[in-house]
Design a protein that fits this description.
CATH topology: Alpha-Beta Plaits
Distance between the termini: 33 Å
Number of helices: 4
Strand order of the largest sheet: 2-3-1-4
Pathway: Cofactor biosynthesis; molybdopterin biosynthesis
Function: Catalyzes the conversion of (8S)-3',8-cyclo-7,8-dihydroguanosine 5'-triphosphate to cyclic pyranopterin monophosphate (cPMP).
CATH superfamily: Molybdopterin cofactor biosynthesis C (MoaC) domain
Organism: Algisphaera agarilytica
Pfam families: MoaC (PF01967)
Structural class: alpha+beta
Protein name: Cyclic pyranopterin phosphate synthase
Order of helices and strands: EHHHEEHE
Number of domains: 1
CATH class: Alpha Beta
Helix content: 25-40%
Length: about 150
Amino acid sequence: MDKKLSHVDEHGWAGMVDVGGKPPMRRRAIAEGRFCAAPGTIDLVMQGDLPKGEALSVARVAGVMAGKKTGELIPLCHPLPVDYVNVSFERTGPGEITVMAEAGIVAKTGIEMEALTAVSVACLTLYDMTKAVDKDLRVEGVRLVEKTKEAL
């Protein structure tokens, strides 16, 4: 790969990118990931019947909170005044829930890290909420699905 990394200077030192000269734009990002468990465990999650309580609402709030705190968690991310973060869940197989996060902002830099962080933390929260009933849990396929920007 010949492309220069934006977070690395001419000496090879990592640093925060200066976005001060960029114009604000309307930005949106969608990320997804999969939470995998035994079908019976997914049944309990979908029914809201876990020993720790109703997992989907807890995971939704955790994902939203994480998206808003991304600049504090990822060292070189800009702290952003996020306009919104939405987290949703869909059972996409007998032993699988797909977690989706959408984040939006009007800013000088992107919002994809916030969407990815929201999905990751929502999946990890599902893991935490179900680990007492299932020892074979997995989080898979966390990825950016879409990233858009438009001029104001």
